[in-house]
Structures are given as structure tokens and as C-alpha cells.
């Protein structure tokens, strides 16, 4: 059911962000530590419900807070629902407003400069603040990928060209480096693809990667070529700035590496070393795709009795590093395939923002369904 899968993507992303935030950049993270955390969370909910059933007064209990990942994704979802399309000026204004309202959500230092600039209603070019970051090279962080899931869902059954164009425009509000743009496209493509596949049978991971590469390969080449042409023109006009050393198709190479990883039992150390868990897009977004596919196809030690969405989130967090962002990106893909029913109720009840995610999912599904009826 489409509603369950759209909601599942948004809700899974929120709970992964909330749970993952507790471990972000912790020195030592492993499966056991993450399992202990979610078991404690589940036990607390069970105890609370038992006391309520016995007629005892019980507080709601601690609710885990979401980070900037969810705050920005919510802004995109709300804008898409209001405008029924991508309105970059409105999305940028919402980013700025959310930051101003709650600046302690964990925003990165560089993006704060952009968000403050986007708050200026007289700003003519909304892409300019991001374009000027890092001496004109733009940020190559994973901030585009962490928030893009609502757009991947919104573009369900739209032409891939539309998905690509809309994803690029939303990304460039804060991140203009080719690595950030291609990484965000990888996440957007993955969410979009997961939602489109038949989930009544086990996921064919090799087919998923094949379709993902068909989308990604020409896009990655095109974006790097455009960057080189732009830099060449700048040099010819007297700008002597050096181009970043982009060689080959690094994202496609990592997707191929994922295929190799799924064929054998790789340990977390190798995943961290070769795919990455950093805040950079190239060193986190492919990892999120791998976490989804591993959760869908292989039992994660210690989580055998849990469903694939749970396994995906637990495994993503256990890798350490940028735990909330890798987990939220992986969960958005997994939730889009498996649906809301795969996200434990205790997790939903323990995390801030889930009610809004359910509502956003309902509204986005209405837009998608109305579009399909018209066509």
C-alpha cells in the first residue's frame, strides 16, 4: 500500500535520526551497545503502558529529539505539500526559519552561514550563498542527502529527469560541490527506486544495484563534465582558481563495491574504511545504501529476530561516525520498501516528530495519488 510505504520512509528516517543522534561521533559503537539502547527504549515503553493499564498515573517518558537532518527534511515535505512542486525560494525560507527557531538541532558550522543568508527576503539569487562557500567550490558534505527523502517520495512515477532536476535544485540551496550533488542524487534515486519496487517478495539486491547504477552512471558523468566546463570558462575569463581533483566516477565505484560486499561477509572495520561514515557525502551516502541492502538480505548478528528496517537502523548506527545521518538515510530507503508496519511502535512512541511524519506521509500520498488519477 502506497500510504504505508511513504509513511514508512518518513517515520523510519525520523526514528533513525533520533536514536542515531545518541551515538553520533562516539568513540566506540558496536551492535551490542545499539541493541542495549533500543531494548531499554522498548522496555521503558512496555513498563509505561503496563502502569497505565493498571490505572496508575504515568508520565509520557523521555522522548528522543531529532536533529537538523529531520528539521530540514520536514521543511522540504511541508513545502512540497503546500506548493505541489519544488519551490526553492520557499524551501530556503523554511530552512532559515527552522534554524532561527531552533538553532541547537546540530547544524554544521558552514551551513549556518548559508541559512542566515537565506533568511534575507531580498536575496535575489537563493543559490548564491551556498555557491560562495569554501572559496567557490561549495560544500561536499552529506547535508543534501540527509534531508532529500520527501522529494524522492514526492516524485513517485514521475520521469527520472524531473527527479534529477528537482533533487539538484534543492541540493544547491546549501551544497554546490559535485560530490554533494551526486551523493544527494544517489539517496534520492534509492528512495525513489525502493518505493517503486514490488515488496510482496524479497528484495533482489543485485537488481536494485543494477537499476541504481543505470540511473547514477550518466548523471555522475554529466555533473562532473558540467563542473569542468564551468571551471574552464572561469579560467579563460581570468579566474586562476584550481579545480578539485575529480577522477573517474567515485560514486559508481562505491556502488560496485557494495555489490562485492554483499557477496561476502565483510566486517564493520572494512565498511568504515572503504565506504565511510564521515560527514562528507562520498563517505556516508553509499554507506547508507549498503546498510539498507545488508538489512534486506543478510542477518545482522544479534538482530536475527528483528525485521529488516530495524536491522538496517541498528547496523547503520553500529558503524559509528555520523550515526544519525547515515542511519536516517538508510532508514528512509528501507522504510520506502517495507512500509510503516516494519517500524516498531515502541520506537515511534519514543521519538519526537513521528506524528508530523505520519501527517506529511498522508499528504504526500494524496498528492501522488491525485497525480496518478489525472494521468
From TrEMBL:
Among Gene3D superfamilies, the record links this protein to: ADP-ribosylation/Crystallin J1
Q: What is its main location?
A: nucleus
* Coiled-coil parts of chain: 31-58
Disordered as annotated region, ranges? 223-246
Query: Where is it localised?
Result: Chromosome; Cytoplasm; Mitochondrion matrix; Nucleus
Q: Which Pfam families match?
A: ADP_ribosyl_GH
Q: Which GO terms describe its cellular component?
A: chromosome; mitochondrial matrix; nucleus
**Broad enzyme group:** hydrolase
Name one process (GO BP) from the record: DNA repair
Q: Where does Mg(2+) bind?
A: 67-69, 322, 324-325
Per UniProt, the keywords (alphabetical) are: Chromosome, Coiled coil, Cytoplasm, DNA damage, DNA repair, Hydrolase, Magnesium, Metal-binding, Mitochondrion, Nucleus
Q: How is the cofactor bound?
A: Binds 2 magnesium ions per subunit.
Question: Which coenzymes or cofactors are required?
Answer: Mg(2+)
- Which reaction does this chain catalyze? alpha-NAD(+) + H2O = ADP-D-ribose + nicotinamide + H(+)
Composition bias (Basic and acidic residues) maps to 223-238
> Which EC number(s) are documented for this chain?
3.2.1.143
Single GO molecular function: metal ion binding
Q: Which InterPro entries match?
A: ADP-ribosylglycohydrolase, Ribosyl_crysJ1, Ribosyl_crysJ1_sf
Family per UniProt?
Belongs to the ADP-ribosylglycohydrolase family.
What quaternary arrangement does the UniProt entry report? Monomer.
Which protein, by its recorded name, is this? ADP-ribosylhydrolase ARH3
Q: Please tell me the species this chain comes from.
A: Littorina saxatilis
Amino acid at each position: 500500500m502506497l500510504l504505508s510505504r511513504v509513511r514508512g520512509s518518513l517515520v523510519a528516517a525520523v526514528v533513525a535520526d533520533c536514536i542515531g543522534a545518541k551515538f553520533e561521533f562516539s568513540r566506540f559503537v558496536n551492535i551490542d551497545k545499539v541493541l542495549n539502547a533500543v531494548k531499554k527504549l522498548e522496555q521503558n515503553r512496555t513498563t509505561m503502558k503496563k502502569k497505565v493499564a493498571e490505572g496508575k498515573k504515568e508520565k509520557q517518558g523521555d522522548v528522543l529529539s531529532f536533529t537538523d537532518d529531520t528539521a530540514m527534511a520536514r521543511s522540504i515535505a511541508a513545502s512540497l505539500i503546500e506548493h505541489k512542486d519544488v519551490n526553492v525560494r520557499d524551501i530556503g525560507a523554511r530552512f532559515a526559519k527552522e534554524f532561527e527557531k531552533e538553532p541547537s538541532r546540530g547544524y554544521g558550522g558552514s551551513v549556518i552561514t548559508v541559512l542566515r543568508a537565506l533568511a534575507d527576503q531580498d536575496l535575489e539569487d537563493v543559490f548564491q550563498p551556498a555557491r560562495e562557500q569554501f572559496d567557490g567550490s561549495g560544500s561536499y558534505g552529506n547535508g543534501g542527502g540527509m534531508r532529500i527523502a520527501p522529494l524522492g517520495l514526492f516524485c513517485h512515477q514521475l520521469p527520472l529527469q524531473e527527479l534529477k532536476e528537482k533533487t539538484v535544485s534543492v541540493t544547491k540551496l546549501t551544497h554546490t560541490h559535485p560530490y554533494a550533488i551526486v551523493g544527494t542524487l544517489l539517496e534520492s534515486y534509492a528512495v525513489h527506486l525502493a518505493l517503486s519496487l514490488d515488496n510482496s517478495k524479497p528484495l533482489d539486491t543485485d537488481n536494485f544495484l543494477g537499476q541504481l547504477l543505470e540511473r547514477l552512471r550518466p548523471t555522475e558523468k554529466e555533473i562532473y563534465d558540467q563542473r569542468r566546463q564551468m571551471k574552464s570558462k572561469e579560467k579563460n575569463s581570468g579566474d586562476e582558481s584550481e579545480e578539485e581533483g575529480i577522477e573517474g566516477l567515485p560514486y559508481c565505484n562505491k556502488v560496485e563495491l557494495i555489490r562485492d560486499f554483499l557477496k561476502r561477509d565483510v566486517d564493520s572495520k572494512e565498511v568504515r574504511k572503504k565506504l565511510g561514515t564521515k560527514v562528507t557525502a562520498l563517505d556516508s551516502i553509499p554507506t547508507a545504501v549498503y546498510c539498507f541492502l545488508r538489512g534486506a538480505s543478510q542477518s545482522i548478528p544479534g538482530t536475527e529476530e528483528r525485521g529488516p528496517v530495524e536491522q538496517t537502523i541498528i547496523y547503520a548506527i553500529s558503524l559509528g561516525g555520523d550515526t544519525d545521518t547515515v542511519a536516517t538515510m538508510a532508514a528512509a530507503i528501507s522504510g520506502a520498501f517495507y512500509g510503516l508496519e516494519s517500524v516498531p511502535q515502541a520506537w515511534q512512541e519514543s521519538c519526537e516528530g513521528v506524528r508530523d511524519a505520519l501527517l506529511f506521509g498522508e499528504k504526500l500520498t494524496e498528492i501522488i495519488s491525485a497525480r496518478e488519477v489525472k494521468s
